[in-house]
Amino acid sequence: MRSAIVVGAGTSGAIVARRLVDAGVDVTLVEAGGYDTNPAIHDPSRAGELWHSAEDWDYFTVPQQHAAGRRLHLPRGRVTGGSHALNAMIWVRGAASDYDGWERDGATGWAWSDVEPVYEAIENDLLPVTGDYPLSPIQASIIDAAVQEGLPHNANYNGGTLDGVSQEQVTMRDGRRVNTWMAYAQPVADRLTVVTGREVHSVIIEDGRALGVRFEDGEELRADEIVLSAGALGSPVILMRSGIGPAAELEALGISVVRDSPQVGKNLHDHLLSPVIFTTSREVGPPQPGVSVTQTHLFWRSRPELAEPDTQPIHFSVPMWGELEPRGDDGFTLMAGLITPHSRGSLTLSGPAVSDPPLIDLAALTDERDVASLAASVRQCRRIGAQPALAGEWGAVEVYPGPEVAEGDVEDWVRRTAITYHHQVGTCRMGSDADAVVDPGLRVRGIDGLRVIDASVMPTVPSGNTNAPAAMIAERGARFLLEG
């Protein structure tokens, strides 16, 4: 029987494992974290408890030169379900032009016409995707305020047009989180070998072929096919510890070079957010069990000549103080968002051991176009909060940035407060060129029997949350593997 090791039980890995086992492959699914026993995973109202928890890899960037020298938190799931166990469950396909751009730039076979049927199949098969749930009163008013600001009310942003304010489509059922681990892998766990609490150090490679994986304690596990689904931060780290990466960087750390692949860990980029926080005279109230604290978002073009929206504010029913000084205990947040970043960063190793943390540099806001788009989104969120549906009906008062930050100072506010939307991609870019880390079939160039199937292969980040694209990539990647 053909055998495979899938590293990572997150969005992509759970799908790959299910599709392979259904095809009769002997699958071992390896997860560095444990099982999803934390009740906060399953109740959407408690998602905020998961940051910095045992289920979070709790990554931080290096100091970001263009973001006030701050180290940005990058929560990533270290648990069955991966980051889909921690996130807000928002399902966004993105724009058709995102995927046509991939195809145009060398990711042959990844155009919108290729991927749209896969999205439709996922949404009609195992994973529940719904926009049919009651809105919290404050969220309904945010939609009204956005319409008053001049935005269209878009009933289905996954229907071909992103623009407008919308209720989020989410992967939930009966007020409970549903992720790909729960929907795909867990139901067939008795047909899988699931290994938890074991971190993969590297891939075993002999004579140009991947033969297995090596754990942090040196133990080895072998199979016919190896799939890395450890995410945009985890997969390049494993490749580099395996000797696949920029040769000079690896040699400097004493890692024997198996294949000089200069783009491993490069092309790192992410969506960014910046908060606009309001207190209210009418009580919003605390999070309610089974109800996500974010239910609406919008897509908007900061410049009318843009072909697609470049911003995606996400709206929270709580004040998201973060590192800001709290100014009250009730309110809401319009989190301005940038979804077409031009800045590109990198991920490198600090050492060859599992215990050596990766050095993650998003190069956040290095490109002035990113600053301009995010600042425009902040200004729009300020205007929405001042509309009658919020200022009048709720007595909304902007406390951050607040009156002390003039319109001309918003760029500085963005640099001081920007955080990530947790949508890192690009570090194992796919393409047809010699520098691409994986080919369009997601095979690691120069190494037989090894594929990367996760968000790291995206050449550019889609226009929206990356969970849905990661699932789509997994379905296609599993099919490619089974077809040989």
Summarize the structure.
The model has no long low-confidence stretch (mean pLDDT 98). The chain has helices at 11-22, 39-42, 96-104, 112-123, 137-149, 180-185, 231-241, 247-252, 368-385, 388-392, 410-417, 467-483; strands at residues 3-7, 26-31, 59-60, 73-74, 164-167, 172-173, 176-177, 193-196, 200-206, 209-215, 220-222, 225-228, 244-245, 259-260, 272-279, 294-299, 314-316, 332-338, 346-348, 359-361, 397-400, 419-420, 450-452. The chain is built from twelve helices and 23 strands.
Task: Give the SSE layout.
Layout: E1 3-7, H1 11-22, E2 26-31, H2 39-42, E3 59-60, E4 73-74, H3 96-104, H4 112-123, H5 137-149, E5 164-167, E6 172-173, E7 176-177, H6 180-185, E8 193-196, E9 200-206, E10 209-215, E11 220-222, E12 225-228, H7 231-241, E13 244-245, H8 247-252, E14 259-260, E15 272-279, E16 294-299, E17 314-316, E18 332-338, E19 346-348, E20 359-361, H9 368-385, H10 388-392, E21 397-400, H11 410-417, E22 419-420, E23 450-452, H12 467-483
Parallel strand pairs: 1-2, 1-12, 2-8, 12-23, 13-14
Antiparallel strand pairs: 3-4, 5-16, 6-7, 9-10, 10-11, 15-18, 15-21, 15-22, 16-17, 17-18, 19-20
Helix pairs in contact: 1-12, 3-4, 4-12, 5-9, 9-11
Radius of gyration over alpha carbons? 22 Å
- The percent range for helix content is 25-40%
Number of strands: 23
Number of domains: 2
| Structural class estimated from helices and strands | alpha+beta
CATH topology of the largest domain: FAD/NAD(P)-binding domain
Task: Please identify which CATH superfamily of the largest domain we are dealing with.
Answer: FAD/NAD(P)-binding domain
Task: Please give the CATH architecture of the largest domain.
Answer: 3-Layer(bba) Sandwich
Mean pLDDT: 98
Q: Class of the largest domain, according to the CATH hierarchy?
A: Alpha Beta
The span between the termini is 15 Å
Question: Helical stretch count?
Answer: 12
Low-confidence stretches: none
Beta percentage is 15-25%
Largest sheet composition: 7 strands, antiparallel
The rough form would be described as globular
Binding site for substrate: 421
Pfam families: GMC_oxred_C (PF05199), GMC_oxred_N (PF00732)
Cofactor: FAD
InterPro entries: FAD/NAD-bd_sf (IPR036188), GMC_OxRdtase (IPR012132), GMC_OxRdtase_N (IPR000172), GMC_OxRtase_C (IPR007867)
